[in-house]
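Risk register update: the risk of archive-format incompatibility is retired. Evidence:
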Amino acid sequence: MNKMKKIKFLGLCMCFFMALMSQAQGKKAVADSFQLDGFITGVPDGTSIRLIPGGVHTTELPITESYLKDGKFTLTGKLDGIRLCNIIFASDRGIIPIVLENAKMKLTATGVVARQDGRITFNYAQLEGSKYNEYFMKETSRVNNELSADYAAYYIEGSDEMLNEQAAAAQSKNKRVLDSIEGSERYKTFLEKQDAFFKKCATLTNDLILKNKDTFWGPLFMLTQCSYLSPDLRPIYEQFSPEAQNSYYGQKAKEELWPKSLVGVNVENFSLNDKDGKPSTVKNVIAKKKYILVDFWASWCAPCRKEIPNLKAAYQKYASKGFEIMSVSIDTDQKGWLKALGQENMPWPNLIDDAKMSKFFNVTAIPATFLMDQNGMIIAEDLRGEALEKKLEELSKS
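Archived output:
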């Protein structure tokens, strides 16, 4: 091979090598990031779109945001691994859950906007480019479809009316009507079917979780199929493989099953808005107060609202002794929150969460309460009813 041929040969090799490097780098760029292209019909242009992490019981901040233009949107970013996310349309008016991976994906969906409240429902949504999403949808649909059929079988037409009558009778303490409803065969049958339904819910959920106990899917299904994780789920978690337990969702489930106490932690000076949109800081609320109860709640949370009379009783008794309450709503529906405030008439600061404060307190289920001292340090957790009364009485004597 003469000198010119050698140079030409080396040049071709270098070109070929550079082409391979370019392809490898291109593949790496795709593998390290995601691009989600959306094609949406039935939803007006200008609709805001947020991509928010899902699969955890804490309020998360958006990964990225965009707007719908000409029926299209594009979301890009990087993930540390496989993540369940929610695509949120128009400030929580519509939602599409998807499992994302670092790849190029395409979402096609058809929405319908309700005239009354602007809520968006999607009668069709298809994600291409994520094999993980296909598995998630297949498994959850299988369980949810079976439970939906069972629910329809036991929750027969007219049950709402019967249960509303029972609730009204209980609230008005009308023993005659209450006994009549609860003594009826229809009510007893309803309770039997309801009990069987919830047992089946637990069985199907546990089967789904344990079927996937060797991978991250196990803890992810535990988080998505359960509204909150209680200690009775610890034996199931302990059956997870080391890989599953050490995964992102494995660690999230562990944090919830074995929560770390916040007692002794100083609360940051968060600033939240009241019903009029005026900001108020933690410092402002605790000023000149001895003890402050931070109460996380929501308008749709029945146990939270059931606890409000107990809070009012404690407030009335101890407010003059330096006790304050700061209610923080995790509502995403502003109108629902304002309506509940009007109904409950709570005479203490009422603020709405911005996702950061509930995340700091690791709020995974509500109601959740934290008692702070005058310096903003947490001194007790989960005080409700008699437990709160007893703690305040103890503190008032010290």
